Structure formats: C-alpha cells, structure tokens
C-alpha cells in the first residue's frame, strides 16, 4: 500500500509540474497596422499575460491583415485556427446579429456614453452571445467614432453624399445608412481599402481619425468631414475550444489583463484621435460640420432607425435608456 501511495504521489507531482510548465501559444490578427492604438494595446496585453504567467502564455500579434480580415478572424476563432481576435462589431453582426445595433448612426453622443453602455450588463449579455460562435467575449475595446473621407468634394451636408461610391464595412446597417444618404455603398474588407481608394474603385470611406492618419488614407483621399456618424467598438475574444484547455489561473490572468489593456487602449485611442486631427489639417481639407448640418444628418438617417427598430427593439431601447442614464449622471 505504502509503495502504491508513493508511486501515486510521484505521478501526481510529475503531472502537476508538467501541467504547470505547459506553454499555451496564441495568435491574433488585426486589420490595422503597427502604428494603431489597437496594436499597441495588444502588445501591452501580450507583455502582461506573458509576464504574469511566467511564459506559460505566449501571444503572437499579426497586424495589417497578415492573417486575414475581421470576418476571417471571426471564422478563425470558430474553426480554432486562431486563438484570439479583436474585430470591429460591424462584421461580427453577420455571425451574431445583435451586434449590428452598434452600427446604428448617432447611437452614442460621446465615447464615455459608449463606455457606460459597453461596460454595463448590456455589454456582458452581448459578450455571452459569442459562445454561439465558439468564442468567449473578454471585453470591448475602442475603434471609435467614424468620419467620412472622399476624393470628390467636401462633405458639408447630407446632399453632398449624393452619388458617391463609399466603401463600408460588410454590414447591412452601414449599407442601408449610406444608401439612405444617397450614396452608393460598397461593402469591402478593410485590407482591400487602401488600393480601392488609390485606384478610384471607390470615392471614399469612413473610419476614425487615427485610422485615416495611421493607415495613410490622406495619401489617397482629399477631403475629410467630422461626421462622427457611428461609433465602432472592437470586441476582444478568445476561442472557447482553446479557453477550455486553460487552467483556471491562466484564465484569470487573461481576463484581468484584457480589462487592464482595455483601459490602456481606450485612453491611447482618444489621445491618438485628437493628435490625428491636428496632423490631418496639413494633409487634407478638413471640414467641421455646423450643428445645423449635424442635425440634418441625424434627420436624414431617421428611416434607418425606423427600419431596424423592430429588429433590435428591446436591445435598442435598453441601450437608449442606458445612454439617458449616462447623460443624467454626467449633468449631476
Ligand atoms: C480593422 C477593421 C477596421 C474597421 C473597418 O480590422 O473595416 O473599416 O473600422 O477597424 O475592424
């Protein structure tokens, strides 16, 4: 008996040492390049998890669509070919339809309102829905408010969009929004966008200030307007198949580090957006909409809300109530 117990103890010891020494390698691919706040935050996240796990977690970060675009990364999570992804919510809507609610124009008045909603139980419930595509949603990061660039004319009012071929993310809400504004929306993967602008396949696109700057869209676009017509979150997610293999201590390291990196990324993203506006002023014709024009845009896209109200009904009401709650706390 004594012999059996000592063999068992040795086996358990070997197993626990082997288990604790096991290295878990992860990959993530993003569309942005290595100048973006998203990339900087992923490197920050990488350093946190590798240090805290004493190297038992290892993350390789691939930028500039090297592993594919958002849709391919989302599919990669489902298939288990990548362990992590951080897409915009817009392409995610094709897999989990509720995520399309964030693409409704002028949903959030500012970034803090977006934080207030995304970090609330509304965000938790949406992250939980990612399990249906074999993913664990860790948290929301920030892509940001989207602004319109083009090569034809300054955009000062909705009428100026008439007939423009505008690249949009692969998402029906964006297609309907720009069609409602009188443009010709062209859904396209982010990785193809610069060339499409350069070759005149599309007249324009829409993305946050720091994207326009770090992706050098100013080299192939003349005009930008601060439409701020939609706020795009990123979703940091991990493959559920991979997640289930991790011991609890490594799961906690990933969860805690994802939240810390979220705070870091949102702060950096806002600083970079502010800096990008100043830099773009000397590189493009920058138009700042009047309040009147902004109201005209909001009026012009009202049919989009009417169309999607039934689809997002209760979720949209929850979000709008949460935004109202935020506005009240802000003014207290
Ligand atoms: C980058 C995309 C990008 C998005 C787009 O991976 O496609 O225009 O704004 O950020 O997620």
Architecture overview:
Helix content is 50%, strand content 17%. The protein has 332 residues and is α/β, with parallel strands linked by helices. The chain contains 13 helices and eleven strands. α7 links the parallel β6 (165-168) and β7. The strands form three sheets. It has a five-stranded mixed β-sheet. Strands 8-5-9-11 form a four-stranded mixed β-sheet. Strands 6-7 form a two-stranded parallel ribbon. D-xylonic acid binds at residues 30-32, 70, 87-88, 143, 169, 190, 207, 232.
* Count of DSSP-assigned helices: 13
From the alpha-carbon coordinates, what is the Rg to the nearest angstrom?
22 Å
Please give the alpha-carbon distance between the first and last residues.
72 Å
Mind describing the biggest β-sheet? 5 strands, mixed
Low-confidence stretches: none
Shape assignment: elongated
Provide the spatial order of strands within the biggest beta sheet.
2-1-3-10-4
Tell me the helix content.
Answer: 40-55%
Strand content: 15-25%
Could you write a compact summary of the structure shown?
The chain is α/β, with parallel strands linked by helices and 332 residues long.
């Amino acid at each position: 008996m004594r012999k059996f117990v000592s063999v068992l103890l040795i086996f358990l010891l070997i197993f626990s040492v082997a288990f604790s020494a096991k290295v878990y390698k992860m990959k993530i691919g993003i569309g942005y390049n290595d100048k973006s706040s998203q990339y900087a935050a992923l490197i920050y996240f990488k350093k946190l998890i590798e240090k805290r796990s004493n190297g038992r977690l290892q993350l390789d970060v691939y930028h500039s669509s090297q592993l594919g675009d958002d849709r391919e990364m989302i599919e990669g999570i489902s298939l288990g070919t990548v362990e992590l992804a951080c897409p915009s919510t817009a392409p995610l809507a094709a897999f989990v339809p509720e995520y399309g609610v964030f693409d409704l124009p002028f949903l959030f008045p500012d970034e803090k309102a977006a934080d207030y909603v995304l970090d609330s139980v509304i965000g938790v419930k949406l992250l939980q829905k990612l399990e249906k595509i074999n993913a664990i949603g860790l948290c929301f990061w920030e892509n940001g408010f989207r602004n319109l660039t083009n090569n034809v004319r300054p955009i000062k009012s909705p009428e100026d969009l008439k007939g423009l071929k505008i690249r949009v993310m692969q998402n029906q809400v964006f297609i309907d929004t720009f069609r409602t504004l009188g443009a010709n929306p062209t859904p396209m993967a982010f990785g193809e966008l610069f060339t499409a602008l350069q070759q005149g396949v599309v007249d324009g696109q829409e993305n946050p200030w720091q994207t326009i700057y770090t992706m050098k869209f100013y080299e192939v676009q003349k005009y930008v307007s601060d439409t701020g017509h939609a706020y795009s979150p990123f979703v940091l997610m991990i493959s559920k198949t991979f997640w289930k293999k991790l011991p609890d201590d490594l799961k906690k390291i990933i969860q805690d580090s994802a939240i810390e990196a979220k705070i870091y990324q949102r702060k950096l993203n806002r600083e970079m957006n502010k800096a990008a506006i100043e830099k773009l002023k000397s590189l493009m014709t920058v138009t700042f909409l009047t309040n009147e024009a902004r109201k005209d845009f909001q009026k012009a896209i009202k049919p989009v809300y009417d169309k999607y109200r039934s689809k997002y009904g209760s979720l949209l009401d929850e979000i709008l109530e949460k935004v109202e709650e935020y506005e009240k706390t802000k003014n207290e």
